[in-house]
Amino acid sequence: MPTAVEIKKEPIRLSQFLKLANVVQDGLEAKIRITEGEVQVNGALEIRRGRKLFSGDIVQIDNMRFQVRLLNP
User: Residues 15-61: pLDDT tens digits?
Assistant: First the structure.
């Protein structure tokens, strides 16, 4: 079961999401981890840090799974 990470508005960029989920320290680390092929979105390898994520998307890194969840207004 993936861990839910709540966002305030859609979409959110993949690099921003990784920071929000506390998986990376900063944007540089996010960029490196994404371009090195360490991140999957919805089961597919993703190397674009600007990939837009929406509620329900699943992000996997370091054998951890996170689900994007839009915070109810």
Answer: 999 999 999 999 999 999 999 999 999 999 999 999 999 999 999 99
Instruction: Decide if domain 3-70 falls under CATH 3.40.190.10.
Output: no
- At 9 the three-state DSSP class reads coil
- The residue ranges of every structural domain in the chain are 3-70
Confirm whether pTM is higher than 0.90.
yes
